[in-house]
Request: fold
Amino acid sequence: MTTETLIEPTPTIKWAEGKVSLIDQTKLPLEEVYIETADHLIVCDAILRLAIRGAPAIGVAGAYATVLAANRIETDNIEQFKKSFLEKAEEISNTRPTAVNLKWAVKKMMSRAETFEGNVKELKDSLLSLADEIKQDDLERCHNLALHGAAIIDDGADVMTVCNTGGLATSGIGTALGVIQYAHAQGKNVHVNVCETRPLLQGSRLNTWELKRTETPFTLITDSMAAYTMQKHKLEGVFVGADRIASNGDTANKIGTYSLAVLAKHHNVPFYVAAPLSTVDFDINSGADIPLEERAPSEVTRIEDIQFTIEDIDVSTPAFDVTPAEMIDGIITEKGVALYPFTSSLEKQRNA
Ligand code: MRU
Reply:
């Protein structure tokens, strides 16, 4: 099925002639460079380095990485093939710990292999079809959630976001940023305050690139200007994405998201999370069970190779934080806007 999206999807990840092509997000916005590879370890390295990043996008990248890994297994014995495939897939799913989409997508690939009846060549073809389906499914989910989210943005709205949750973080449309871009594409007058998102600057590097493409009006602010901005301007909402949502609605997202939720509460600004249901981990009860990635201290002490503080110091490096469910006004998914208490509303959407 072809989805009629309201904005042009970004070229985040593609499959062509036995290779994966990824736009290198460490180089944006100054250079548009692509990583093309038939080696699953290069895709894993790209995920680790954040050359591809964002929960749904790393799910799709993980699925294609398993296809590349499968293509390099040289046996015609189906049982040996399955054993080797499952080991490699398990390694791929552990590349980054927080975003559940990676595990969700790779688990689908593993189940396909486990239950498959046929020869090795047929299984390899079937794995590629499934990865393509996962990518298309992500595009459709994001399109639908962006429509639901755009419906709650009024003409003239001034909003805020953190990290990059646009097409680059998905198969091409985005979640929270997609919601804002869809509202703009529908002809609404929308302005977005973009938090730069220290330490890796996904906001200032990637959102600016995406918002320029769709000509959506924005202002770049440092993370520490969020309180000032909310005090000075009446905001209609804060829209953020998610890496993993527990079944009670507790939401792990980019470090700094929780600070925005606290500020939004103080300034009486609605706080929304936008994510496909593939980001909800129904197996865990609360945010306490979400593993939060710690990154290298050099990501805080340096920008690329430029060191700007002494390095033999104690540095805190969480990549994500957890916003408690009760601070979230709505979770926008492809099925609609789930409201608190989320245990029942998300479960209802899951079964809808
Ligand atoms: O470390 P990153 O850049 O992968 O973190 C990404 C985020 O926190 C996003 O907000 C989240 O994955 C949702 S992307 C649609």
User: Anything to note?
Assistant: The longest strand covers residues 19-23.
